[in-house]
């Protein structure tokens, strides 16, 4: 998992991660209930596969709108801060 990359992984399967580098690493993990909108975002990823989605390849505007809607529904301070930043980025 290189810096600046995004991974979609099925953590229902056995897994293990190791930081073999010399610097601290932070991984942001979303534990969510999968719905049709999430399935559509990752439809091109084979189930059970660790397939990298380069961060340089951004989500579509529709994907971002869906993410913002879902974060707003969560209503937590962290989710609302992400909404603020995403909306600021969109303009």
Q: Please state roughly what percent of the residues sit in beta strands, choosing from under 5%, 5-15%, 15-25%, 25-35%, 35-45% or over 45%.
A: 5-15%
Number of helices: 3
Report the C-alpha radius of gyration, rounded.
15 Å
Biggest beta sheet attributes: 2 strands, antiparallel
Element-by-element helix/strand order = EHEHH
Spatial order of strands in the largest sheet? 1-2
Low-confidence runs (pLDDT<50, min 5 residues)? none
- DSSP, total strands: 2
Structural class: mainly alpha
The coarse overall form would be globular
Protein traits:
single chain; 91 residues; mainly alpha; 2 domains; two-stranded antiparallel ribbon; 3 helices; 2 strands
How would you describe this structure to a colleague?
The chain has helices spanning 36-41, 61-74, 77-90, and strands at residues 5-8, 51-54. With 91 residues, it is mainly alpha-helical. A two-stranded antiparallel ribbon has the order 1-2. α2 runs antiparallel to α3. The longest helix is centred in the last third of the chain and has 14 residues, at 61-74. The protein is globular.
């Amino acid at each position: 998992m290189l810096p600046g990359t995004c991974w979609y992984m099925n953590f229902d399967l056995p897994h293990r991660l190791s930081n073999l580098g010399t610097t601290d690493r932070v991984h942001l993990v979303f534990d969510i209930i999968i719905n049709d909108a999430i399935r559509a975002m990752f439809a091109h990823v084979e189930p059970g596969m660790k397939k990298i989605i380069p961060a340089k390849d951004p989500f579509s505007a529709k994907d971002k709108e869906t993410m913002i809607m879902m974060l707003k529904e969560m209503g937590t301070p962290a989710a609302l801060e992400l909404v603020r930043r995403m909306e600021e980025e969109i303009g």
